[in-house]
Amino acid sequence: MWRSATVRTSLGFVVLAIACVFVADFEISAHAPWAELGRLFLGLVQPDFEAVDYLGEAIVRTLAFAFVGVGLGAAAGLLLALVFRHLVVRTSCAFVRAIHELFWALIFLQFFGLHPLTGVLAIAIPYAGIFAKVYAEILDESDPSPSKVIPHGTGLVSALAYTRFSQAWPHLVTYTAYRLECGLRSSAVLGFVGMPTLGFYLESSFAQGQYATVGALLLLFYALIATLRLWARPRLLPFYLLAAPFLLGDGLPIRWQNVSRFFTEDIVPEPLRQGEGLAGLVPWLGDLLANEALPGIWNTLVLTQIALVATGLLTLALYPLVSHHFTGRHFTGRVRGALGHGVLVVMRSTPEYLLAFILLQLWGPSMLPAVVALAIHNGGIIGHLIGRRSNEVSLRPDAPRGIERYAFELTPRLYGPFLAFLFYRWEIIMRETAILGILGIATLGFYVDSAIQEIRFDRAMVLIVITALLNIGVDILARRLRNRLRLRHTAQSEP
Amino acid sequence: MTSLALTDVVANYGGARVLGPLNLTLAHGERVALVGRSGAGKSTLLSIMQQHWQASGAALMPQELGLVPSLSVFHNVYMGGLARRPSWYNLASLVRPFRRDIDAITPLLERLGIADKCWAAAGELSGGQSQRVAAARAIYQQGDLLLADEPVSALDGPLAELVMAALTEAYPTAVLAMHDVELALRFTDRVVGIADGAIALDEPSRRLSVQDLLVLY
User: Fold this and answer.
1) CB contacts, 8 Å: A167 with chain B
2) Rounded to whole angstroms, how far apart are CA atoms A198 and A219?
3) Which of A198, B11, B180, B209 to pair with B191, CA 20 to 30 A apart?
4) What stretches pass through the bilayer (chain A) (predicted)?
């Protein structure tokens, strides 16, 4: 067992994570952390749905931003997917999707202000990069033989629509629906930087200590995502997409002089702006790297590695909850399975950022809330996928039960897909880790946010680009590892 | 339409010569059966013909049929006519087919015995049904020339004859690769036998009997 490359790679990750734990900051600094948690649970059990206007507005705005952002992103992604083989397109898509929605929002906030366009573009741009990549992969997987029998002289649009798109349609729809769910989470989180979505209402309810309203907001959000399949019907989608742009709210008007100032002054590095030229640029960059970028990168990497391994351990502990090999197939088993599903749905529907925000309120600022939030959200996603995969395994009738079944029959068979999913999430976990800095944990996002607070956008832009490059680097590393360990990976298996 | 001629065509596969050099001229209104053992080069010759004659209005019915499994039978047949319509019309048909196209395609499906499957997805059909859909598409294409690779291999007896009759009626000029020698003689004017990548026999069908062709196998 110790000779298998998969096991050795996994152990390497665990050892690295343990080493990281020693240099990480895990202190609980709040005065009464458990009392706060208790009040929050009380709020969830006794939610206050009285403020109907308030809750309704939070939900409608969250939906509207998600629909417009994902809709625009999907349309742009579809067009980009057709030209995705060009290196320029591939590289720019990798770059825009390496920058988190919240970073995009922070950038657009500087020149569009609190206009709805900020929130819409913050979702649409990174989503377009993701859609382009996955749509291109799905289209490539379609059977090329129908294209051969297309009559000579058929227009390009007709030929594509009848061959490639028709074949790929079901997969495109499934993936887009999944992304809509992600878009709802992104939209909710945009509230934390000032968009009028769920996060905004959640933050202000927290600030006022109204835990019953917090509970009501969270429960509504879970209900929205759990019932997505019931209300997001294909026939209703055109209606939603048409209505959504009118429900974004008014925000504040755009001041166009801000837009031009942003590009011509704000983001130009300070020494260049003051005419010091290259001589001034080198010390400026050196200072930025030594005092902000490097500490930020270090903390981001430390936190990412711990969160990755915590996610993996939680996944391995949780997948039996939704595997019929453990819950059983009879009536009581199905009830147990449904309960397990419920737990995982709640875990994966909670955006990491929102969870980290809540835990941070309860435990005070340290890396602990971030690790727990990342592990819960990502463990919920991968646990669900691995559990589903385990249900495709058929065991011999006299297979062992209980812990032996877990250790000898199922986990070894599922370990390959498990690692594939985990490596895929690696980049996502790192992107989220960086962004959690906005909450006060000293990852890259913290330095980006501080630079913006100090109105030093030139520094913020350099840090955002560094974050994007770090994400691209981890993505490449994960792909190499997947190839080396021969883990199968297709577009549809992406969680 | 200019005359259909292949001169000194060759095909290589993995560095080895698998076909040719060979010459073949096809007269208008001439239906040619390509016969020969499997692996002799019939499919290769057909694909060369397709490359040369595609622009002269060749309709193709390959062995793998080229159906889109997620589209309905109607749409798969309609695809034969894509070049005759503007793009906006084709896109609109994808969402909601026009009455006149349904009226044009239904009799064709009725003749081939698959009218009841008109709105079923092509991926849900049996092998024989799929082959008839591909035949219907080739017929609906209304090209000047048909290139078909084993067009009735999944059909038996009367159905095979029905489809052959429909295909040959729609296409006076055709090249059909076939392994059913008896059907080949009945529905074509000329038989070209392929062996080891070269033309081993080229005779009018009426002068041949089934026994004459067995030497090729």
Assistant:
1) 68-70
2) 12
3) B11
4) 58-82, 102-125, 211-232, 239-256, 297-319, 428-448, 460-478
